[in-house]
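User: I'm preparing a small set of examples for a lab meeting where we compare how different chains pack in three dimensions. I only have the primary sequence for this one, and I'd like the structure in token form so I can line it up with the others. Please keep the answer compact; I'll paste it straight into my notes.
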Amino acid sequence: MSSQDIPEENLPAEQDAHGAVGVADDKNPFADPGLPPHEHRVQDIDELAAKRSERTVAMLFTVSMLATVGFIASYVGIPHDKAIFVFPIGHINALNFALGLTLGLALFSIGAGAVHWARTLMSDEEIADERHPIEASPEVRAKVHADFKQGAKESALGRRKLIRNTMFGALALFPLSGVMLLRDLGPLPGTKLRHTLWSKGKLLVNVNTDQPLRASDIAVGSLTFARPEGLEEHDEDFQTEIAKAALMIVRIQPDNIKDKRELEWSHEGIVAYSKICTHVGCPISLYEQQTHHVLCPCHQSTFDLSDGARVIFGPAGHALPQLRIGVNEEGYLQALGDFEEPVGPAFWERG
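Assistant: Understood. Below is the structure token output for the 351-residue chain.
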């Protein structure tokens, strides 16, 4: 149905276009043709068609709400390791597929509903306005307010309650998708960062030979790396645990150890310190035996292992934690407890 098929008395009143048609002359040979005649849409002249468009927009907003609920349900209910076959893609992760499908559908439905609302129910009449200075005069501000009120009236937001309510529902539910993603930031670490696998009686195992270390295996000036007894590379949590429990062992002449507590916690000059830099957690691996300094390769933080592993250069904020060690009846090096302070960089819960 077009505007030509409707009696003139049923057509909406024309509004002033604010654009005058130009006339060609010697100075301006190209005349301004003005705006094309406005043609009314079927929704402008047929309330039944407007109602159909209203229901379509409401349906799209409702689909968005259902898709958002589906996103949340998928995130909570689908195991992260479940795989499904989707033709023609093949086997894919079920959780990723469900999250992408529902999130995309929720976004698309909100956008499609807004576009359909604007194209079929909001005013589509083009209005030309003259340019004006950037500074807003009282008249301009009054005109803006009037245009805003007119636009709000033409959008029929107050009259089309079904659209308004479903749109508010879709927009209110959709942010919950982002809130659900915050779950991956937790749970809070609690005391996990304060403890490692080291405990009293745990043997020091050489990471290269996978054998327990004896005091005789550590030569003066050498650097050896160790891990706790029972922690194997094929363990599911190996990377998480070794990131806290990695140990470096150095043997220093007892007369060269300056820190009293360090000497007490050592065994015949063998000292054990955390391998994790206290700056940003890089593994320390560079040792200078003449000075007993260890260097972090990431940002050059330098620690003196003969003086309590205190920081002598670089951005690290505090000394490396020391592990108290001894030997068991068989002569193997063992831990006499856990680190007495958290390893690695500082964290927000640390007191």
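A couple of notes for your slides: Confidence is low (pLDDT under 50) at residues 10-19. The helical segments are 42-45, 47-77, 94-120, 138-155, 161-173, 175-181, 238-245, 260-264.

User: Perfect, thanks.
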